[in-house]
Amino acid sequence: MSRWRASGLHFLISLFILVTALALIRLLWYPDFYFAAIGADGLLAILFAVDVTLGPLITLIIFRVGKKGLGFDLTFIAACQLAALLYGMHTVFLARPVFAVFSGNRFEVVQAVDLDLNGVQDPEFQTMSWTGPRWASLKVPQDEEVVTAVISDVLAGGKDFQQYARFLAPYEEARNLAITKLRPLQRLRRKGVPARERVENFLSDHGVGEEEVGYLPLTARAEHMAVIVTRANGDILGVVRVNPW
After folding, report:
1. Per-residue pLDDT reduced to its tens digit, 4-34
2. Boundary of a domain, candidates 174, 193, 227
3. Whole-angstrom Cα distance, residue 15 to residue 52?
4. What is the pTM of this model?
5. Residue 107: exposed, middle, or buried by beta-carbon count in 10 A (0-12, 13-18, 19+)?
6. Model confidence at 126: pLDDT above 90
7. 155-171 pLDDT, tens digit each
8. Together in a domain, 169 and 188
């Protein structure tokens, strides 16, 4: 086997493994719009560079038929690739979105690495989903000392209210409030032709009129979007990739 063939075979195997990992990430951990909202493409670019580019390139450089210790060298390269892949997947897993929390006038995406599960009483919020984030709402605590402590933590660069699972509640409890905070889609249309087309396509795909729905901002680490909600009962229809601000 020539070094080019060995490198090519290594590339195909690495590519297959990465595509499988990508399917897991896109279909389970970062479904739909969350992939762009969190900015997971940057993490995947690093994985691609290490596992699909660097590994086969090293094989191309060192491979020579009959070379002493070649088996060990190839095994070592594969082990390093696997370690890098597992580390990268672990990082992506910890950064996955687990809740989209309605906090009074917008939705905020909470990632697993930021969520505090201590003191949770509601079984629904005692665990983090492995199959995509869940919609939730925020119940600000009534205890002034608790509120003051959290605000002080926020000002010091710590966790905000929506990052404590004990302050979360089902979205259904905040439907009526969400309806009162809805903004007209006309604001999104004014953001240019691409925004207008995305809004129109969304309405067409869901079979609703513009007067039947409104939007609420969704904030995330990498990209802000608009959550489309019905005015009649507060149902969440989906998300449009248009900056809502």
Report:
1. 888 889 889 888 988 898 888 888 899 988 9
2. 174
3. 6
4. 0.85
5. buried
6. yes
7. 998 899 999 999 999 99
8. no
Q: Is 207 left (phi over 0), alpha (psi -120 to 50) or beta?
A: left
How many structural domains are present in the chain?
3
Sheet hosting strand 225-230, strand order edge to edge: 168-170, 134-138, 97-102, 107-111, 213-219, 225-230, 236-240
33's CB contacts (< 8 A; 6+ apart) are 225, 239, 241
- Residues 168, 146 within the same domain: yes
Verify that 58 and 128 share a domain, yes or no. no
What single letter denotes the amino acid at residue 80?
A: C
Cβ density class 194-212: b for 16+ within 10 Å, e for less: ebbebbeebbeeeeeeeee
| Domain with 187 in it | 182-245
- Whether 164 and 187 map to the same domain: the answer is no
Structure token digits, residue 153: 């933590």
What is the CA angle 205-215-115, rounded to 5?
105
From the list 112, 110, 132, the residue with the least C-alpha distance to 27 is: 132
Same domain, 140 and 68: no
CB 116 within 8 A of CB 99: no
Are both 90 and 101 inside the same structural domain? no
End-to-end CA distance of the chain: 58
Distance CA 218, CA 240 (A): 10
How does DSSP classify residue 112?
G
Domain C-terminal end among 156, 174, 192: 174
- Look up residue 190 and give its amino acid: R
Do the strands 236-240 and 168-170 form a parallel or antiparallel pair, or are they unpaired? unpaired
